[in-house]
Each structure stands twice: as structure tokens, then as C-alpha cells.
Write a structure and sequence with these properties.
about 50% strand; mainly beta
Length: about 190
Amino acid sequence: MNILKFYAVFGLALACSPLSALEFKQVLPNESAVTFAYKQMGVPLEGNFNKFAAQMSFDPAKVGTAQARIDIDVASIDTGSVEANDEVIGKLWFNAKSFPAASFVSTGLKALGGNRYEARGKLSIKGRTLAVVAPVTFQAAGNRGAFDGSFTIKRLDFAIGEGEWTDVGTVANEIQIKFHLVVNAVPSKK
């Protein structure tokens, strides 16, 4: 009987051991999204970016080692209007020919309790880089997880909308960036 107890305890310990920990690394772009919300002449509008690449490394047991990078193809913007899309990839807005990508690179992740975190990083758009902080939630179900978060930028800090477009009465200065990243996990090496 003691040998059965030993194997039961050993099996339980093995199942709970660091060997069974998961590291969320594989971002699924077809199930993920990067969107934005803004106001134009006081009217709330939304859009998204159709092409982006994301790399991530997140082990819930080692929050301090988490890393993330998101690179967005700014020419893939979809504002809901072909005319607006053509305008915003132009020189006065994103200048996609000279600055084809916007990027976010994490510099740290802080656990806030439960499934809530605070992500810090550097956001680079149109040759300008600024620090941003984003509240993030993480939900896991087995070896799949999802990160959801948002933060607000001021477009003029990144020279998005130059010349006549610096008038924030037409297009608001505040742009909310939202992200939903679906990830698969692999066994973590501890």
C-alpha cells in the first residue's frame, strides 16, 4: 500500500513540477488584432491594422522575464474608407514610404494581481520613440491564452497628422490603441 501512495504522490508532484509549466510564445496572427479608436469632428470612429507580426515570451511563473514585440505594417491600415486609408499612409500622416512600420517593444511586465498586469515599453512611430504603459489582462485555457490591453497616445507626439492636420478640432489628438493577442504555449524549460 505504501508503494501505491508513493507513486500517487510522485505523480502529483511531477504534474505540479516546473517541468509542466507553460511558456506562451506562439502568437496566432489570424486570431489576433490591433485596432484603434479616435474622434473625427467629434464622431467616434474605429479602425484596424490588417498586417502585423508579434513575438512573445510569457511564463506566468516568471513574469519578470516576459518579453514582447509587435511590428505593424502601417500601410495595412483600414479606417473603413479607401480615401481615408490613402490619406493616412501619406507623408503628412504615417509617411508609410519612409516609415513602413510602427513597433512596440516591451521593457517590463508587472503583475497587479489576478489576471491583470502592467506592460511597459517603447512605442516607435514615424521615427519617434516614446515610453508607454498599458494595462493588460491575460486569460489562459490549457495551452492557449489571450492578452488584451489598450493605451492612449497623442498622435501629434509622433507627428501623425502634420500641416493642416495638426488641428485637433478635426481629428482628435488622442488615439486609443487596442490589442488582442492569442497565443499558444509550449512546455517551459526550467
